[in-house]
Amino acid sequence: MNAEEFRKAAHAAIEEIIDYYDTIQNRRVVSNVEPGYLRKLLPSSPPEEGEQWADIQKDIEAKIMPGLTHWQSPNFMAFFPANATYPSMLGELYSAAFTAPSFNWICSPAVTELETVVLDWLAQTLHLPNCFLSEGEGGGVIQGSASEATATVVVAARERYLTTACEGLEGKGREDRRDQTMSRLVVLGSDQSHSSLAKAALIAGVRYKSIPCSSENDLALTGANVQAALEQCKCEDLEPFFLLTTLGTTSTCAVDRFDEITTVIRETRSPGTIWIHVDAAYAGAALVCDEYAHIAKDFVAVDSFDMNMHKWLLTNFDASCLFVRNRKDLTSALSVTPSYLRNPFSDTGLVTDYRDWQIPLGRRFRALKIWFVLRTYGVNGLKAHIRRHITLGEKFANWIRGREDLFRIIAPPAFALTVLTVANPKLIDWGLLNEHTETKVSEGLATSDIMPHTSTTELDHTNSLTKSVYERINASGKVFLTSSVVNGVYAIRVVSANEKADEEHLRKAFEILVRTTEDIVGQAYKVES
Amino acid sequence: MNAEEFRKAAHAAIEEIIDYYDTIQNRRVVSNVEPGYLRKLLPSSPPEEGEQWADIQKDIEAKIMPGLTHWQSPNFMAFFPANATYPSMLGELYSAAFTAPSFNWICSPAVTELETVVLDWLAQTLHLPNCFLSEGEGGGVIQGSASEATATVVVAARERYLTTACEGLEGKGREDRRDQTMSRLVVLGSDQSHSSLAKAALIAGVRYKSIPCSSENDLALTGANVQAALEQCKCEDLEPFFLLTTLGTTSTCAVDRFDEITTVIRETRSPGTIWIHVDAAYAGAALVCDEYAHIAKDFVAVDSFDMNMHKWLLTNFDASCLFVRNRKDLTSALSVTPSYLRNPFSDTGLVTDYRDWQIPLGRRFRALKIWFVLRTYGVNGLKAHIRRHITLGEKFANWIRGREDLFRIIAPPAFALTVLTVANPKLIDWGLLNEHTETKVSEGLATSDIMPHTSTTELDHTNSLTKSVYERINASGKVFLTSSVVNGVYAIRVVSANEKADEEHLRKAFEILVRTTEDIVGQAYKVES
After folding, report:
1. Within 13 Å of residue B371, how many CA atoms lie on the same side as its CB?
2. At which of A16, A48, A68 does a domain end?
3. Where on the phi/psi map is residue B352: left (φ > 0), alpha (ψ -120 to 50), or beta?
4. Using the 8-state DSSP alphabet, how is residue B314 labeled?
5. Are residues B121 and B60 both part of a single domain?
6. Cβ A98–B68 below 8 Å, yes or no?
7. How many domains does one find in chain B?
8. Which domain holds residue A517?
């Protein structure tokens, strides 16, 4: 493809993308292709000779589009949003043009330096404490995802802990101490922590223990929860070295009690023993607003903080921004330098080699899209964007509250997320429901795994009604929602935080919820009576 | 940025990219900015109000460009290439527009299904054995980098080994066996393996042992090397569970003896005990050519194979293609499924959820760019592209051989890479040089760490001459090369495999090498005499 062909192809691609965005809300939001649909549409091997762009492009609408779930659609209210915007697309385009697997500073100094600058900008915009700025001992790094960031800090925390545990030892003695300690290490997180924490522990080869949270505390992890977990670890001869806390849990957007938790850790452990990480993948974006800034004050006592600009801050996936208080914690753990990666700049120690801040070696020029987004929207634009969704979310929650006959909200609506169940007319109340599940929690099960399908309690009945409503709505393709199981309760999550989402879309989703629920509850009781 | 503004901005960006590619060879190939240059050019915080694209775009040429090292320049002959092409850029653009962190099939079925199809296409194109196709028990997955792929398979191999080791045990007994085994696990690779192997072992929390290779075997890992390493592990009560072999090592593009190695493993270990991985990050691309296809035959006996389309196959970073013989090895190790990731499609087991094939949860739509590249070039176009560089590389090596007075080639030139040193007129011959370093190897040092700076042997002298030549050339900014240390020898790597690289560029690089070497050697002996 020569320059002229590229110009023509790129213009055609841009028109197709603009048209896609302009008409996206008319498309079925969640794909309804059958598994294996695409293989039937494509040849079984690549062409021997090259094809023209026009022929390739045709296949996007014909073959790819039916298999897309449209995350940019204003009818997408599932998972958490994944905002993409025009300036972020331009960032990705330039990044591809400037391709460099920029593992070292010298691979392309601008890749490293822009990353440092824009992450400092972002830290300020999020009202993070100064300890996370690069001018001191901390700094930010762009990772691919919050899950990758968690895996990275778990490994760094493990190495920091083991290094201290083996201090002063050498040779066999050191190896033995390391092995013994390793076998007792445990990662802690609440039972509302994202599953990527369990996966990070698995990757790092250490145990993982989840701490039960209760609905009384709005599913937030408390200081008392952590205290109890630390004591239990002691009884079991386990050494906790990492604690994940969350700002905006996946199921309900709960906010852990950072102040209480960091106080407990400070009072019971030597500094640097337990690495405290804040997973703020989605809700961290709200810290741009002054009214949320107070939350960030508590982060002065944590080791690391991660938020995804690719969720709620208008930047296409991937742009997970990880900030650490002490960058040496990462580089001491993750630096491996053979001769072919050595260079005079790295040797001086004056430059940053981001390969030592992450699991993979190479990295893309992701700072460009963050730079473009921050500049195109400005700080005030970002605040307005977040506030608009917060307001929309509050409206939606109020509509739901207005239909107590149909719905129950099972956790405080927050950050544009509302989590609800169908209000089974025969259901015992929420207090009893809690009692029902508390037993299982105290038996040590991870609550998110509790799905009491087997007994025919009232809760099962409600769960099954809610599930029917959820499945029928998603099958319609008019809106796309996610379900979750919270302390044994099957719930529907509605989060509307796409750039294109407006009141009309949420209202439509609400009406679909009402109609579907009336219909299903009506049928259920007709059958029973 | 609305649609009209995007159209205008995107057209301007495309013109800038076309102009950049058309004139790239006139730019200084390696950036010569001072560390910290960019912070001085940018405001210390993001703007309060949004800015216009025209103002943002201006800063690309003014502030970013001076800090770029131009990997697409035909004068870039460092590391390994990182080809980006117009069709791959279009793939990245669409991927950004269709943003979805596609962890599950239902997140966007086309993302998963196109990946499965194009990786099957690629496996065929690379002449890989059928066991790596998705129609059987294997399949391919796109990772971010070869280093990430290595970390992924090391973790999967560890889990596979531990699961077998703990078979039949439960509770405390199982935990104890797991801990004991874990402390004895060791990852093996040759001393020419990429440093990401050591890092993968670190991430997985296991030991790493590098196996010395000798220049007599052209720095390839042999069956005998592996046999000796296995015996040594037995003596040290270590349990090897993973072996990394390489097709095209970083320093010299050596090709390990896959047939011998797999035979040794098969004859001494039960099946499934030691996971054999092939790191073919760069040279794997050559397997598209029929004349290299015979190498892939031996992969019938390995567990996994990884190559980067983003090095030599015209696709912008990132597109590391990992193929496994048994996809269950990945999913059994890496699947963690909370309720909010459950869905009817995944529950059927009929769809692929690539999150279980990798470390991070989310993933981009990287299959698009691979699809566009395979279709734009066609299989014959890819073969022609590789063969052109192989021929260029052979020419370059011959020019170097023609100046025996100035240069020594220290390993067989391969895959367009030539590795050379300055021919110190006073130097003892290469045989003696080997003797000099073998001692250190037998002392158990990783050879890549041997840099005998302290003694003033002939080798030091040559190393210092070569280093001077290398540093002066890179400082000129006319071409960009990489150095490496191979069995104690400081060497210059020249690899020209950019799409834009032609004979004239290599010839220019050769002439710069000759002039610089004549100058430096001349000076050195003038000073001495």
Report:
1. 30
2. A68
3. beta
4. S
5. no
6. yes
7. 2
8. 385-528
Give pLDDT, residue A338.
81
Q: Is A482 on the interface with B (CB under 8 A)?
A: yes
- Read off the pLDDT of residues B103-127 as tens digits, 9 standing for 90 and up: 999 999 999 999 999 999 999 999 9
Which residue of A lies nearest to B359 if distances are taken between CA atoms? A148
- Closest residue in B to A156 (Cα) is B203
**Contact residues, chain A, for B179 at CB < 8 Å:** 182-183
> Is A110–B31 a contact, with Cβ atoms under 8 angstroms apart?
yes
Query: Model confidence at B529, in pLDDT bands (50, 70, 90)?
Result: low
A449 pLDDT more than 50: no
A493/A58 Cα distance (integer angstroms): 36
Establish if A45 touches chain B: CB-CB under 8 angstroms.
yes
In a domain, B210, yes or no: yes
pLDDT at B236: 96
- Give the mean pLDDT of chain B: 93
Say whether residue B271 is in contact with chain A using an 8 A CB cutoff.
no
Of B202-206, B239-243, B520-524, the one with minimum mean pLDDT is B520-524
Q: Are residues B51 and B185 in the same domain?
A: no
Q: Span A257-266, mean pLDDT?
A: 98
| Claim to verify: residue B197 and residue B243 sit in the same structural domain | yes
Q: Report the percentage of chain B scoring pLDDT > 70.
A: 93
Q: A116-119, long-range: CB within 8 Å, 24+ apart, which pairs?
A: A116/A140, A116/A352, A116/B39, A117/A367, A117/B38, A117/B39, A117/B42, A118/A367, A118/A370, A118/A371, A118/A374, A118/B46, A119/A321, A119/A323, A119/A367, A119/A370
Is residue A483 over pLDDT 60? yes
Give the pLDDT of residue B350: 81
Note which residues in 386-425 of chain B have CB less than 8 A from chain A: none
Residues B143 and B10 in one domain: no
Q: Is A464 on the interface with B (CB under 8 A)?
A: no
Contact call for residues B366 and A50 (beta carbons, < 8 A): no
Per-chain mean pLDDT for chain A: 93
Band (B337; pLDDT cuts 50, 70, 90): confident
Distance (Å) from the alpha carbon of B49 to chain A's nearest alpha carbon: 4
In a domain, B233, yes or no: yes
Q: Is the same domain home to B26 and B157?
A: no
Position A275 in a domain: no
CATH code at position B198: 3.40.640.10
> B38 with B119, same domain?
no
Furthest CA-CA distance within chain A: 82
* Prediction pTM value: 0.94
Tell whether A359 is within 8 A of chain B (Cβ): yes
Give residue-wise pLDDT tens across range B495-526.
Answer: 999 999 999 999 999 999 999 999 999 887 77
Q: Which CATH number is A32's domain given?
A: 1.20.1340.10
**A349 and chain B: CB distance < 8 Å anywhere?**
no
Encoded tokens for B13: 């960006």
**What is the CATH classification number for the domain harbouring A460?**
3.90.1150.10
Cβ-count burial B196-205 (b if 16+ within 10 Å, e if not): bbbbbbbbbb
**ipTM score above 0.85:** yes
* Chain B residues near residue A367 by CB distance under 8 angstroms: none
Which of B325, B352, B374 terminates a domain? The answer is B374
Could you tell me if A203 lies within 8 Å of chain B, comparing CB atoms?
yes
A449 within some domain = yes
**Local structure of residue A246 (DSSP, 8 states):** E
Site from B48, B61, B93 to mutate, A interface, most A CB atoms within 10 angstroms: B93
CB of B521 less than 8 A from some CB of A: no
Q: What is the largest CA-CA distance in chain B?
A: 82
Residues of chain A in contact with residue B63, where contact means CB-CB under 8 angstroms, are: 110
Chain A, nearest residue to B177 by Cα: A183
